[in-house]
Amino acid sequence: MMGDIFQRAKALPLSGKLGLALVIFWLAVALFGPMLAPYPVGAFVAYDVFDGQSAKYWLGSDYLGRDVLSRLMSGARYTVGLAAAAALLASTSGTALALTAAVGGAKVDEPLSRFMDMLISIPSKIFSLVLVAAFGSSLGLLLLIAAFTYIPGNYRIARALAVNLAQMDYVQVAKARGERRFYIAIAEILPNMIHPLLADFGLRFVFIVLLLSGLSFLGLGVQPPDADLGSLVRENISGLGEGALAIIAPAVAIATLTVGVNLLIDAIGFSGKGKGQ
């Protein structure tokens, strides 16, 4: 299995390898960053605010004299962790509903699809702002908001795939054998949807990173003393005029994370087409 993974990684184009390297880097930072941070996250370690890069503070200090590198390594955990969990929840829920619609017939498909069309018409940021304003900001609520916001988008893509596959001969043969709908959905349709669904999962992840970062920039995301990458940009906005690393570093982190995932998605899609999948 590991050999197959390495072969697939070697087969990626240069842009895909760059994207894979960025994704692995940020996953490693999210998993091990807080343990490897040179200073405690909330410790005031520098005498000067917005201090420049030095051997002691690799990314300088922030608006309170805290080490930017330590806060960046901790903040990546919230950005990557929340976005990955929300994308997984959105993709799993949307795909399950899409399979239900595909094998359930028009009586299930029509009302479910119209309901999803209604949800997808609501602007994601406005919807998020209303819920956060009504119920307050917490990690659990942010997770649910991000997941619920992107379920309709995943549903539309998964449903289109599932409905097309449901017309294939091997699915019709399974129906003629008298197989149950659950078996047809899980064993006959779902395995042939995995490749495009993985690409869609990557897109959902990028959308959710940007959504959560936008909410944090507005002060409605992860709350102090915790901070994600969007929060780090917001709290150091006063250093923009000085070109402080405290605001540049988290902005670059968000950019490299999202660009890396996009490059990897594009490369996976390209290699999939090349194999005729």
UniProtKB/TrEMBL annotation:
Keywords: Cell membrane, Membrane, Transmembrane, Transmembrane helix, Transport. One of its GO terms (biological process) is transmembrane transport. It comes from the Bacteria. Residues 76-265 form the ABC transmembrane type-1 domain. It is found in: Cell membrane. Its main location: membrane. GO terms for cellular component: plasma membrane. Signal peptide: none annotated. Belongs to the binding-protein-dependent transport system permease family. This is Peptide/nickel transport system permease protein. It comes from Sphingobium xenophagum.
